[in-house]
Amino acid sequence: MKVGFFHALRQKRKSMIQYRKSCKGGWCMQVKLTIGERLKDLRTAQKLTLEQLAAEVGISKSALGKYESDNGKDISPYSILVLADYYGVSCDYLMGRTETKNHPNTALHELHLGDASIDVLKTGKFNHRLLSELICHKDFQRFMLDAEIYVDRIADMRVNDMNAVLEAVRQMALMKNGGEENDLHLRTLEVAQIREDEYFGSLIADDLKGILRDIRSEHRPDTMTADEISLAATMQDQLQDAMNFEGSSEEKKAKALLSTLGIDYDAITMEQFVNLIEVLKLSKHLKTPISQRGKTTMTHGKGKRKKR
Fold it and tell me: Taking a C-beta distance cutoff of 8 angstroms, is the pair 238, 19 a contact?
């Protein structure tokens, strides 16, 4: 059964509201994990069953299962300490107070960030998790190298030297050609010269697009990722299908309403469909200007329904 447009829109809006609240005014790629979810992720990452974990840490299987299932509401301080030590993470990470799993006590100077960078990161006005994914991408180092080459003009001198050689050869050929520039060889020597700004700008853009394309693909299944087909397009298809329905004007309007509400037309009985049409006739907004008295023909179910 297709999901109706307005129902899907309400669900998406509800998810967005919950998502924004979970981020507390900032931006994030995913909803913040609960204690139970963190515990389960840590256990499954090490491919442990509850029985195996219980034997390792000395906490009962039932208690561990409860911690994971009820989001750690009743977890004891002792269990927090034991599990954090076992998994090699901080207690703050396990309790959801930080997203830093393996480097809880890293000093700021070790990150090599200046005051201005720290001020920007502390504002929380952009997607910190996206920034982390950019930095962790396998091609980020190459992107930074290309950016450094471009910004510091490291390759400019070599590019200019190469261009100078090509231009010198072109000028010599031009002199031999009597000054006629419309020549394949001369034009080749001209277009072979590299404009460093355009070349390196394009190189950096390609690096960044490749990284973002990979991240975008990884987040395609996420709840907050936009639908492949927009809700408006889905509604348009549903309404078009209703308008192509063979039947009276009232039947088409009823079919359109069913599609909008996400109700499968073939899942209702003829009696239910007739009753829906009678209810719709009470609306002043859906009245047909041309009288249909004596002309209504019920086509519902013809050739489309199995006998019940």
Answer: no
